[in-house]
Amino acid sequence: MPKKYLFYISQNYSFAILRPLQAEIQRRGGAVKWYLEPNVNASYLAADEVQLTTVEAIQSFNPFAVFVPGNVVPSFIPGIKVGIFHGFDAGKLNRRGEEDHYQIRGCFDLYCTFGHKVTQQFSKLAKSEQTFKITDTGWPAVDPLFSLAPANNPYHALNDNRKTVLLCSTFSRNLTCAPHVYETVKRLSETGKWRWLVQFHPKMDREIVEKYKALSSDNLQFIETDNVIPILQAADVMLCDTSSVLLMFLLQRKPVVTFKGNQQGEHLIKVSTPEQIETALTEALTQPDELMRHIDDYIKYIHAYTDGNSSARVLDAVDNFTFDSLKTKPLNLLRQLKLRKKLGYWKLS
């Protein structure tokens, strides 16, 4: 019998995170099914991808492992609960001023980590909590970044020799750069100096989204997609804030200009006023030697794997996982009640 795996997702961007892992599972002869929380758009499923729509269906499927690119997963569904991160550690702080990337919510048996900092932090947490294990595998989402053929990229303009600037922005009102750089992006796109691609977090304020959509022209393309990889590959430089997508962009050895971003380090070109953006982008496009050295050093720190085989390492980690030496997880009654309400499931498991 083939091994069975469940993909449990709560955001539309999770499709692209898990599909490289799905391809590796299928290459090994395994079976994959998807469970989508109510807010996820099922139209993003491919024709050959199977969706389970009830908890009872999940229990009948009885997966060997459940992969989650999010923070929580119900305890009442079967399988090893595997945390596959929804992004890099972009340094975002929660309301208590703590790094949200390292909040343990008592849901997972195994975290598949990547990068020196994340692996080091979760190793300490695993030792302290003793309710989960960690394995440094790399992030499946970036496997295609190192293996997709650029010729198949729909965002490449084959007959346009201009450099391409990608604007990405997070949705948080306190962190987003989108409303602050709008006039500058509008002006620069109208000059035709560069080609612009614009892609925002799916939770971005719709009013801002519509403003940028209205800028669409031969010089600017607004993109709504569940897969950012082809967009990252098509651009030469990025303008961003604190969105973790900028770290994916850096993995390609391409410069990033941040507007009021909270990340520190010489691997970024940081600006604090809209008037500085054009000069900073111009500098970034020259790929200065010193900047590129800092980017290379940072890549080794956040995701040293550039072989496109992180999905294979994740599956190996799950195959080798045992519950030996792990303590029982906390009951998480309030969190699990909220999940039961969200999924409409009240049976005792």
Protein traits:
349 residues, single chain, 6-stranded parallel beta sheet, 16% strand, globular
What proportion of the residues is helical, as a percent range?
Answer: 25-40%
Strand content: 15-25%
Integer-rounded radius of gyration: 21 Å
Uncertain runs are none
Distance between the termini: 25 Å
How would you describe what is shown here?
This protein has 349 residues and is α/β, with parallel strands linked by helices. The protein contains eleven helices and 13 strands. The protein has helices at residues 14-27, 55-61, 116-129, 178-191, 206-213, 229-234, 245-250, 277-285, 289-302, 310-319, 333-343, and strands spanning 4-9, 31-36, 51-52, 65-68, 80-84, 110-113, 133-136, 164-169, 195-200, 220-222, 237-240, 256-259, 269-271. Helix 1 crosses helix 10 (310-319). It starts with a strand and ends in a 6-residue tail after the last helix.
Write a brief caption for the model.
With 349 residues, the chain is α/β, with parallel strands linked by helices. Helices cover 32% and strands 16% of the residues. It contains 11 helices and 13 strands.
Ordered list of secondary-structure elements with their pairings:
Blueprint: E1 4-9, H1 14-27, E2 31-36, E3 51-52, H2 55-61, E4 65-68, E5 80-84, E6 110-113, H3 116-129, E7 133-136, E8 164-169, H4 178-191, E9 195-200, H5 206-213, E10 220-222, H6 229-234, E11 237-240, H7 245-250, E12 256-259, E13 269-271, H8 277-285, H9 289-302, H10 310-319, H11 333-343
Parallel strand pairs: 1-2, 1-4, 2-3, 4-5, 5-6, 6-7, 8-9, 8-11, 9-10, 11-12, 12-13
